[in-house]
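SEQUENCE WITH STRUCTURE:
===
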Amino acid sequence: MSDELIRMSAVDLLAGYRQGRFSPVDATRAVLDRIHAVNEKINAFMIIDDEGAMTSARESEARWAKAEPKGLVDGVPTTIKDLVLTKGWPTLKGSLTVDPDGPWEEDAPCVARLREHGAVLLGKTTTPEVGWKGLTESALSGVTRNPWNLAKTPGGSSGGAAAALAADMGPLAVGSDGGGSIRIPSAFTGVFGLKANYGRVPVYPESAMRALSHVGPMTRSVADAALMLNVLAEPDYRDHTALPYQGIDFTQGLDAGVAGLKIAFSPDLGYANVDPEVARIVAEAAAVFTDLGAMVEQRDPGFENPKAVFKTHWWAGSAGAFAHMPDEIKAKLEPELAQIVAEGQELSILDYMRAMEGRTALCLHLREFFQQVDLLLTPALAVPAFDVGRLQPPGSPPDDTYWTDWTPFSYPFNLAQQPACSIPCGFTRDGLPVGLQIVADNFREDLVLRAAKAFESARPMDRRPDL
């Protein structure tokens, strides 16, 4: 039964609790056993809180015994990325610059909502230092590995969250995405990750990347992500940039399909260099939407690569976060991150204003584009997962700024703030997952989820890592 429990979705676990077939204690114990059996190979966790998780599970079990669940995810094992404040646990951000003594007395909005809905919090998942790169390795936490091939990276910066999901170490995970950090590891590990529209999920404290950064659900199924988004999107006064809470039930309409929708498929956004095998797998995935009744047209959205605009925002944010640090603390930063901070300090206010203008132009361009189509399909990434210990895949251009050339499909939609997901769509000859990105107009998470569910139903994930 334990093997069955660790592979269940949150939706299926909740159905089992409701029917009395098993309890949150059974599920949590099974997941914790799985964590202790395989995490040493993968290194997905900074903190594993057996005692706290089992206490929460017993409390949930008592509520379910009385048919009085506390909320939408009562008793579901859940992980939190180590960039997200969690009361009672250090939030070290993968960095030697953070004092582990805290105090740690506050939950971020997403954690507070999960607790209110009865989630069983298992622990904190690994991230690169302050989430700065698209893989998950740091001097503090070491190397996090991809469950599909332990020699490969799971991506980042929510790499621990993605690796834990892929390895059946819990069905729900909180991730964050400032340039692709939910979608990159979701694609590399074959899980589902959603970057909701900016402001849909309240964030506190504000990210150093400001309006680039989103918090969102990472799961093994679309239905679980929709359910989790219902929880995460509930209001919190601490985020002054959050969207007005609308009480949307994102689980409604998931099975409406895509028949009649106008969908653009862009293999490379007009500028990206994509691995041929990835390109083939994604093109085959895009063709599925035609089979499902959508009107699919190969079409680029028509904007130039916004890499320079993104880099200015990111580098400025890094400088703002770390330039004030005492030199002895700043010396603990990873050298590449320290270089980004130094370069960010050289940016002028005019540089930043020009980047803001470029971002505005991109936003307006994409808003107009989405008046003509309902959805945009692209590869989630330009390459399959590459070896750990590298900042870039082999063959990266000399001027690659650490991740932007092999993640060309993710950061444009952080700049423009649209909802976007990565859903697994196939495997390379070497058995590595490939992700399909689905993007919709601003505020249309419902369309992203609906299209993802239609694809998932037509092309369900049919493999699991062999651990």
Q: What stands out?
A: The radius of gyration is 21 Å. The chain has one domain: 2-458. The chain has a mean pLDDT of 96. The first strand starts at residue 45 and ends at 48.
